[in-house]
Write a structure and sequence with these properties.
Blueprint (H helix, E strand, L loop, with lengths): L19 E5 L3 H7 L4 H18 L7 E8 L7 H24 L2 E6 L7 H13 L6 E9 L1 H17 L8 H5 L12 E4 L18 E4 L9 H11 L10
Parallel strand pairs: 1-2, 1-5, 2-4, 3-4, 5-6
Helix pairs in contact: 1-2, 2-3, 3-4
The structure holds 3-methylbut-3-enyl trihydrogen diphosphate (2 copies) and magnesium ion.
């Protein structure tokens, strides 16, 4: 019998609270456009929200927070919007580094890095190294992330290990160990803001048994109070993982 992925045997968080929350932060563009402002204003406001949510997580019992910041499909947007977003990511890392370190946040990134500019890549590696000892909150930011891209890269790594004779009959755990999220627990809960009810290539492997919450609130309007309310509701859910 095939060995189950380690992730499916992991616990569901304590006291019915999700330990790992993942968020598809959607609706920045519409938020700005509704006010007659450029889309980038919405992205800047969205980044401010990330700071607040990050600060709120530990007190809400959330130990892992994964946020979708830029997908492999988002390169289709205008050059102005893409470059503006990249600047926002770089500035977030530069300005938040001290605060995140002081607050015990460990920051990591998932997604393909080679397409990002060299300065941003340096900032990402720098803050990962600087915060590596922290554990109060594990913050993972998905930049140039796509689940299909991640699985394709993972398949390539796995094939390499098989070719080198390190693995004979690959298991789910072997593939999992080749993902960008190797060693991270699976998300218990995935939240998407802005009323869209699709997953848009976010964590297809990791969220196989996650609970989902879709809220009409646009990301720049999403507050720690909204998050707290969703987390309370999560406690009422029964997760069965295929059991009877
Ligand atoms: C989410 O907001 C942020 C990114 C995808 C980078 P959007 O920019 O997708 O906002 P809407 O969906 O157009 O309102
Ligand atoms: C998903 O939002 C990606 C991020 C939030 C970073 P999109 O706005 O790109 O998704 P679609 O295009 O509506 O599916
Ligand atoms: Mg969107």
């Amino acid at each position: 019998m095939a060995e189950p992925a380690a992730s499916l045997t992991k616990s569901n968080g304590q006291d019915g609270r999700p330990r790992h929350v993942a968020i598809i932060m959607d609706g920045n563009g519409r938020w700005a456009q509704n006010k007659g402002w450029p889309r980038l204003v919405g992205h800047r406001r969205g980044a401010e929200r990330v700071k607040q949510i990050v600060r709120a997580c530990p007190d809400l019992g959330v130990n892992w927070l994964t946020v979708y910041a830029f997908s492999t499909e988002n390169w289709k947007r205008s050059t102005e919007e893409v470059l503006g977003l990249m600047k926002i990511f770089a500035r977030y890392i530069e300005r938040e580094a001290d605060g995140l370190s002081a607050e015990g946040v460990r920051m990591r990134f998932i997604g393909g890095r080679e397409r990002l500019d060299a300065k941003l890549q340096r900032l990402m590696a720098g803050i990962e190294a600087r915060t590596a000892v922290n554990s109060r909150l594990n913050l993972t930011v998905a930049i140039n992330y796509g689940g299909r891209d991640e699985l394709t890269r993972a398949a390539e790594r796995l094939a390499g290990r098989i070719a080198r004779g390190e693995i004979e009959n690959p298991t789910e755990a072997d593939l999992e160990s080749c993902l960008d999220t190797a060693g991270h627990p699976d998300p218990d809960l995935v939240i998407r803001t802005s009323g869209e009810t699709r997953t848009s290539n976010f964590l297809p492997w990791q969220a196989a048994y996650s609970e989902y919450e879709f809220t009409p609130t646009l990301w720049p309007d999403f507050t720690p109070e909204h998050l707290a309310e969703i987390l309370d509701r999560f406690g009422l859910r029964e997760r069965r993982f295929g059991g009877a």
